[in-house]
């Protein structure tokens, strides 16, 4: 989940209810969202700063125009990001992308007591990087709310028929993939409300929330990810008056450590997954960086309640 917030100092990151799966949250004082927030609450607001064609038409011939698409719309300068599941995979890629976009600090929240060697190396890299106006800090926070072992238990049930799927395991998947995401969104939204500056929340869904795949016994995963799509829509409707945007991202099959237990249990899935995509390969985590920064930034200021489907499977993969 992503939250962006433009503030004087980064807020303290508390050990609250956080999902072990990737999510990203960025609270911010957006030029666009703050104006919308003020008007939505009946407050007087100043004229918005012009961008794009409007700025070009209002520009004086005596001035030298400067590009704004990356320095302003896509910029995350003075924002603070919270990334749950940020120790590796898509979460770590998102964290580094936030640093490159100029955030003041990224708090990576995950289950282990200490970060991985991979995360530590990326942090050192980020520290050496001269980010665009930001401090380029990666911070690690251990939050043991959901048990990562649950995901490996789920992997052992791959192939279990829907009529015999264990009830307890089904409940554990919902606790992790649905309840954990909601608790994270609540914690982030409460901070955004506290600062009264709006924000952006990005929930990580999946193509499995849109499609049910032939030759896959994944009723638990399909159900949980479909719930995230509707959760994002509902949160977007409730939080829009406060200037808080909520969107979801649905990747196809991504080459991270998460699918490894599934592939170990059923090696033939690798070829099946590759054949579902017209490119005949799995996605790499870095290929989601662009859409995540876009949703976190002012560049997507009119986007809320939306689903961004990445690397959609071919229709042949659907039932």
UniProtKB/TrEMBL annotation:
Pfam families: adh_short_C2 (PF13561). InterPro entries: NAD(P)-bd_dom_sf, SDR_fam. It comes from the Eukaryota. GO terms for molecular function: oxidoreductase activity, acting on NAD(P)H, oxygen as acceptor; oxidoreductase activity, acting on the CH-OH group of donors, NAD or NADP as acceptor. Signal peptide: none annotated. Keywords: Oxidoreductase. Belongs to the short-chain dehydrogenases/reductases (SDR) family. This is Sorbose reductase SOU1.
């Amino acid at each position: 989940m992503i939250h962006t917030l433009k503030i004087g100092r980064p807020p303290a990151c508390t050990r609250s209810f956080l999902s072990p799966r990737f999510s990203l949250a960025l609270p911010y004082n957006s030029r666009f969202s703050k104006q919308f927030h003020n008007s939505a609450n009946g407050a007087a607001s100043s004229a918005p700063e012009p961008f794009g064609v409007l700025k070009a038409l209002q520009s004086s011939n005596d001035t030298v125009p400067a590009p704004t698409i990356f320095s302003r719309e896509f910029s995350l300068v003075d924002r603070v990001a919270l990334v749950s599941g940020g120790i590796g995979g898509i979460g770590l890629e998102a964290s580094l992308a936030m640093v490159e976009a100029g955030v003041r600090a990224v708090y990576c929240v995950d289950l282990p007591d200490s970060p991985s060697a991979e995360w530590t190396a990326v942090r050192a890299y980020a520290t050496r990087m001269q980010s665009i106006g930001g401090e380029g800090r990666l911070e690690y926070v251990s939050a043991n709310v959901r048990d990562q072992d649950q995901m490996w238990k789920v992997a052992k049930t791959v192939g279990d028929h829907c009529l015999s799927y264990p009830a307890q395991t089904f409940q554990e998947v919902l606790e992790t993939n649905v309840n954990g995401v909601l608790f994270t969104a609540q914690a982030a939204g409460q901070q955004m409300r506290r600062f009264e500056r709006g924000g952006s929340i990005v929930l990580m869904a999946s193509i499995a929330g849109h499609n049910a795949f032939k030759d896959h016994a994944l009723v638990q995963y399909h159900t949980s990810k479909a719930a995230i799509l509707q959760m994002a829509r509902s949160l977007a409707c409730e939080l829009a008056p406060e200037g808080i945007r909520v969107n979801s991202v649905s990747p196809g099959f991504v080459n991270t450590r998460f699918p490894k237990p599934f592939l170990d249990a059923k090696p033939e899935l690798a070829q099946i997954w590759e054949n579902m995509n017209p490119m005949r390969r799995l996605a790499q985590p870095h290929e989601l960086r662009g859409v995540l920064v876009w949703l976190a930034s002012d560049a997507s200021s009119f986007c809320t309640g939306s689903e961004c489907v990445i690397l959609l499977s071919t229709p042949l993969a659907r039932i």
